[in-house]
Amino acid sequence: MKKILQYTYVLLAMVAPFAASAQQAKPYDMMVNGVKVIVQPSGNDIVVIQTVVKGGVQNYPADKAGIENLALTALTECGTLKDDKNSFKDKLDKVSAYVSGGSSMDYGSFNLNCIKSDLDAVWPLYVDALTVPKFDAKEFERIKQDAINNIRSTESSPDNAINKLAKQTAFAGTSYAKEPRGTVATITALTQAETKKYWESTFTKSRIVIIVVADLDKASIEAKVKELLAKVPAGAAFAGQKKNYTPAANTFKAEERANATNYVRGIASGPLPGTPDYTAFSLAMSIFASKHFLEVRSKHGLSYAPQAWFNGGNTSYASLSVTTTEPDKYIAVARGLIDKIKKDGFTADELKNEKTGFLTGIYYRNETNEAQASSMAANEVLHGDWKRSITIKEAVDKVTLQQLNAAFNKYMNNITWVYQGDPKKVTATMYTQKETPAMPAEKKAF
């Protein structure tokens, strides 16, 4: 089963740059022509710049899903008014630099990575890609077909299928039901002209924030950003919307699918970014993930890779996932574990150990300039506070056992369950009934 990262946005939104040395300047922000620019001195010769476009799936209707991701791909793959695709890439290859873009649920980004000494050569290419992209018709059809092929290649994946069913079931009628990459139908219908128009209307000062992770002097950064922003319209005011997901009851939806085994996915509530419960629930779900793995795989042998994690985006939610030949036994184990934790609580030792492991994992994942830039971007867009990326240790250290247990009890309640596999193997009422099914006997794990 494809590995699913436990924290998704949580890792991006919680990763903290390593503590700056005495010689390394502190991170700061500044406003340049109405746009926030966040700067993290890197202590190395790599320059990473991310221009972040807020909104993500909120920026387009469902029948245009994938348009932002396609537009960001076109910025480099369709050339600019000054360079066709080959000329653009040749100039980047000459100095081993690259620029790339893509869009996710909550924001898109267009990124630059180069050696500091090559920035003056790469920066004009980056600015042109953002401000005067060509959207060449022939190249656009090529990248559109590539996008369609990539979507089709994942359609046969059971992991992608169950994820899509879960999101469309839980978030029906909301932006979070949309796929940032789009669908075969939505991408097929997109035209070069409307995609170009979309980019021109979305790439505005009101929607962007710029992240710089590099050892560059402030005046140089300001001058380069002014050069970029001189070609960017102001745009209408924009405010991203956050939406709680709180299921009113346990629900269950099954689809027959000829999988080698059966796939189960559950979606529960979660705290929104910027709220007091966010860090505590992140820790709680991390501990729960370990317990869930132990119970489902090690004690009951029901699945090779059971997982649980927290998705901390503008619509936050907790997820449980399993592949199993015995789905009814799984739900008894999963619900029994949740009930036990809510009754007995996590322990002080579990919280202490999780804080250490949680922070160690965060620092380990944040070794590159790009990871630091992504952390600051996520914290700024989701939490409205990029500084959280460098103060997360303080937030984690402050979480008490009472807060940990209260957060788990508050959000891990009703669950939206979906199932794909053999319908004869599953009993829907076991997933929706008020009473927790009886725990099956333990058996040898895989």
TrEMBL record:
The keyword Signal applies. Residues 1-22 form the signal peptide. Keywords: Signal. Gene3D superfamilies: Metalloenzyme, LuxS/M16 peptidase-like. Residues 43-179 form the Peptidase M16 N-terminal domain. The keyword Signal applies. Pfam families: Peptidase_M16, Peptidase_M16_C. It comes from the Bacteria. InterPro entries: Metalloenz_LuxS/M16, MPP/UQCRC_Complex, Pept_M16_N, Peptidase_M16_C. Residues 190-356 form the Peptidase M16 C-terminal domain. SUPFAM superfamilies: LuxS/MPP-like metallohydrolase (SSF63411). PANTHER family: METALLOPROTEASE (PTHR11851). This is Insulinase family protein. It comes from Terrimonas ginsenosidimutans.
